[in-house]
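Why run this: before we spend reagent on co-expression, it is cheaper to look at a predicted model of the complex and decide which construct boundaries make sense. The entries below are exactly what would go into the expression plan.
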Amino acid sequence: MSEVAVGTAFTTAESAAIRGDFAILSRTVRGGKPLVYLDSGATSQKPRQMLDAERAFYEQHNAAVHRGAHQLAEEATDAYEGARETIARFIGAQAQEVVFTKNATEALNLVAYTFSNAAAAGAMDGVDPALAARFALGVGDEIVVTEMEHHSNLVPWQELARRTGATLRWIGVTDDGRLDLADLDTVITDRTKVVAFTHVSNVLGTINPVAVIVDRARAVGALTVLDACQSVPHLAVDVVDLGVDFVAFSGHKMFGPLGIGVLWGRYELLKAMPPFLTGGSMIEVVRMEATTYADPPQRFEAGVPMAAQAVGLAAACDYLTALGMARVTAHEHALTEALLDGLAQRPWVRVIGPVDGKDRSGAVAFVVDGIHPHDVGQILDDAGVAVRVGHHCAWPLHRRMNVTATTRASFAAYNTVADVDALLTALDRVPVVFGTVI
Amino acid sequence: MDLYQEIILEHSKRPLHAGLREPFNAQVHHVNPTCGDEVTLRVQVSGEGPSAAIADVSYDATGCSISTAATSVLADEVIGHSVKEALSTFVAMRKMLTSKGTDPGDEEEIGDGVAFAGVSKYPARVKCALLGWMAFTDALTQAGVDISATSASSSAPSASGNTNADTTISDTTISEDIFTSSTIPSNIMEDS
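The model came back. Tokens follow.
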């Protein structure tokens, strides 16, 4: 995969320095045990540099952006728009194509609602008819997702299908946790108007072949929406190279603050789209009778925006850039292989997803024979090891893999081989506590 | 850790009264959306009014050791007891489970249920222990039993059975509002 750039894992000294930036990693849990944080797929911890950037914004520049003519308003606006440029650069985009949302879920809903909002009278006035037609969705049209989607990239499309009468179809998943592309040409057809899929599975860790799906979608004229929540924090992502039309990701999974997500879209598409949420900031001219709207990205940013979070997210991008995304990828890859090796030595553990490191990211889900994931997670937690248990907001995927729930460990740049060892050591207590045979 | 008492492990390995049996007045299906655990539970009530009793509780459950053991203890504690006693056991269990470790439970009242006292220190697991109980009280309602006395905010008189209700079958996913009358902390849901 082109996404996996060449790099080297962090040295012990580098890892120690990185961990020093994350104060929370030095705390203890459950009666004095050192925290072993392996739940970054749910949310990452935050480096001091990001927190400092947010604090500096509030302490020195805080004002409502894009409003007022006083000096603080200018500084806050500069900080907000500067953050947009930094974040755009981080994903290889133009700043005007980056829309801030409250999270990735809202970003995906923004795109999904475009299709039904576009059907309203006058919504696409002035838009090139050929472009407007790409957002027209109704009975006979089809929406394609995959069976490995997080609920946030599934439910909005189910709802869109319900609102418009379009049909939802999906690309299946193989037993080893890859997309089943054998019948891609029969799932994505001339009836397909939009294909929404994840770059990296939040459960399986699978890195999907974006180019293969994009090629097929383009051939039939369908728009493509990529859920990049689990890729942007871990792989160098260039939205132009990916060739998709929209990309959504969240700030909090990539060392950024809670409360901010990003929608990237091709500018000509954003320019053609009707607004999603409406109100202040997103207008051009407002009269009692009717309103015209600002150009993107402001058109999609109603209300006083989350400037401090944007500044924090930009600092997180700078932090990742300084680490080097190729090295982050290589480091996490080494941890993933170490964990997969360790799990393979335990015949009572079964990995759900690819069992080797090829085209795979650092989310590793597994089940322990005869023991429910909640019980596994509880024993790990007792040793200070924080993992996620449950269906990880991907219930249909779990059903497909014939499991009710899984235990998931997921890595970020601050993890080390010692964390993997701590997980494996704690895991060995599980069959002992529950009296199952090793 | 004090969560996995031997008695819980024993109940989870060999759950009592498991399996779906007839006859039954009502059948319910409850799901914990956090983890996908589910239980199908049937209840058979005999007698009416103050003499109403739990003739049988049968169930088919998929879940963690806590939820499996809790449902096993539930069945064992309520079968053959009056509806009134069963509901007071439920209230006592719920009180202990939502006490955040301050209520050790009364063995006289809840029997093996006291083994679950440790669960109350783990907010994420309280719902596991209550899955079967929520299904049970829902099934009683479906069977026509007035369970308003178990509502923390209610001063309704003691429960009475009504076996005149036709057999009912329902399907429920646990949502936060089911717990509104109890003191379960609001943070027990994982994101889903």
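The interface with chain A takes residues 1, 3-4, 9, 13, 34-37, 62-66, 122, 125, 128, 190-192 of chain B (CB under 8 Å). Confidence is low (pLDDT under 50) at residues 153-165, 175-192 of chain B. Bring this page to Monday's planning discussion.
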